[in-house]
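Q: My collaborator sent me two sequences in one message, no labels, and asked for predicted structures for both. Can we handle them in order? The first one she listed is below.
A: Yes, handling them in the order given. First sequence, followed by its structure tokens:
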Amino acid sequence: MKAYPIKFEPILQEKIWGGSKLRTVLNKKAISDSTGESWEISGVQDNISVVSNGMYKGLSIVDLIKNHKEQFVGMKNYRHFGNEFPLLIKYLDARTNLSVQVHPDDQMAKAEHDSKGKTEMWYIMDHEEDACVINGFKDDKVTTSSLQEITINNVEEILNTEKVSKGDSFFIPAGKVHAIGAGVLAAEIQQTSDITYRVYDWDRVDNFGKERELHMDQSMRAVKRSNTTLSNNIEFQSDTNVLADCTYFTSTILDVDRAMQMDYTNKDSFVIYMCVEGSFEITINNHTEMISVGETVLIPANSTNVSVDTEAAKIIEVYIK
């Protein structure tokens, strides 16, 4: 495989809670003011990413895996996932609150949907004043059955609401009740899965006056309390640049202000860069791409030396151990 910095066409998703910032802040080619997500790299069925640059332009990410196997994704990843790309990479704009929701783990997702589960993380790129996220239960005194009784008046008595700051990150393992709140612009890294169980949707209706479906039975079976979610070798290392480290992905934040050489010779995985602030040039095998805020680039697993040059950029680096 000829290694170079590979970019993909963003797949824009309209959402009832979406806004305009993916267009106005991240320069996506959105045409509406309710664009909630930009799927930057996706192997989700019916939403397969297509290369937008270089010699592989026009090929899908599945084509690249089938054609180049471990050279593209790494030996361990290819043995484990075959021709499926294991991660879904997004940018997200919440004009209003996302639903209170929970995702199934691998076992439940396999049994009920023939799918992978959904463990994810968020990085807060920007936010409006007093923007919040919901992150688990309020405390141990709140029972799981309380999820069936949520109203607009008691949601903060049942669930843990946290104000966000730029640069915050949140790790959301499968089974944790959560929601991104209004006014948040975020980067999201997750397993390749699009399964969401809605617990509560803020009593809103669509353009036809219809409420979105809730999934209480599945939600109750999927929920795991916060004291049981530290699994999959998750490590929190606040004194390093590691944002999340689990079976499904590792993500770090790179704060770069000069030219750097990255040596990936011994990393048996593709690497993804998400530009969450500033811009940078990336060069592999004399092929250079400029990556601006809100853009994403994939480094094939057979890359060795990668050059990054910038005066100021924050980059989320994602790979699988």
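Q: And the one she listed second?
A: Here it is, processed independently of the first:
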Amino acid sequence: MTVAMAGAPAMAADAQAGRARALQCQACHGLDGKSKLPEAPHLAGQNETYLVKALKDYKTGARKDEMMNLMAKPLTDKDIANLAAFYSGLKP
């Protein structure tokens, strides 16, 4: 039996799949996770658990940002985990 650690992502994530999914994120956040726009945060090296929570909150509307709410809405839990693994693994 496996016990998930509190605050840790619940499923094994695939950073390569996250990279592929991040193609839609690159316009604002850059594929390297370093934003080119002042209103979009850098994601490279961000905490993986934080990224998962933020994306889930955007998806449910608990966190409000018109563009991010639209972008996060179709993401599956696996997509979110993969994106978080990808961006957290990048060098800030």
